[in-house]
Amino acid sequence: MQITYNIVITRLIIYSILFKLLYLGIIICAICIYSNFDKHQYNSVRHWPIKSEPTVSSYFGTWDAAHYLYLSVEGYDKGVNSCAFYPLWPMLIRWSNGLTGANHIVVGMVLANLFSLVGWVVFFAIVARRFDERTALWALALLIIFPGSLFYQFIYSESLFFMLLMLLWFGLERQRDTLAWIAGFLLPLTRGVGVFCVLPIGWYWLMRQRWDWLNKWNWLKEEHYRVSTCEQDTGDEGELMVLAAPILGWAAYLTLMWNMTGNPFEGIVAQKHWGVHSISNLWNIPKFVIGFFDASTLHSFQGSMLDRAAFVLVVYCLPLIWRLGKDLVVWTYVLGILPAMSGTFVSNIRFESVAFPVFIALAVFFLGKRRKCPLLIFTATSIILHTILVWRFVNFRWAG
Q1: Which of 15, 283, 302, 307 could link 348 by a cystine bridge, Cβ 3.0 to 4.6 Å?
Q2: 305: in domain
Q3: Cβ atoms 163, 115 nearer than 8 A
Q4: Count of H helices and E strands in the chain?
């Protein structure tokens, strides 16, 4: 059985690499055959190369990618709007560039695809162990073709964030506290929502306690039994250290920003440049509700119907996610709902690409009663939208 499982993982890695090579090849062909690069957008916002006219590399360094590349070259400085982006991803590009001497674009693309590959494999392994291989394969396929998942192939933090997320989930499921601690510590250095991973970590800690009241309700009893019977290798001290990891990671982020810019909150100040994301939005429910109905375009920076459709998909999957596992509901809240609230749906199609319980639920839904027609429609729609967003992204039009 173990040999068969290893063969499946090996094949998955090979197929994923081939998929990524094919994906890159198609993008290059599309650029050569039909390019409509928006030079006005290029000249009006942060772009790559930093101080020159567009080149071939500019197609791969649009929007946020240009900010990450800028930070990997120039670093952080007070008053620079790029400080809104979290430091671990550009630092890894910079360090890797220093070790290899390769072009920043090449380094960033290689790292993004390597990290997403690792994240996909770990995701498949956890879902296959918890559910079954067929569900895992379809969940991964649905995640990959999801329109917002185009950013797993480009120089965005999604790849690194998803890999760390999967390592944290693996560490919590198997109680590998050292691995979980490292991942939990690094997540807030990658994206701000990483600090809220303290919530699912806290859920696992709670479910492992031997408190009688946890068996009072059947839904809680089942979750308590599942989590508490997972293999264990450490005691309560290790679990509490994991619980503290995201908070310590956030403190490390503030310390880094203080050291680099002289202001620990420089990143938060820089967010005001875009006037979108704010922690205060999390409890401004009227603004969130009004924002949901304030859809004015098919897809743009604000007012996007596509971003709101992604949120509807998350809400639609919640009842099934609840049945699949209460921990998955906590993960969905952190990854699929909090970002939508903090940014009032801006870039929501991208943020939802890491909300992994949604894709597990979709796989279970489509496979449960052999819903072939809905699966075909959903798959075709996802691929078409994914393709459109890729074209928009490389041509410096808003994709997410």
Answers
A1: 307
A2: yes
A3: yes
A4: 19, 0
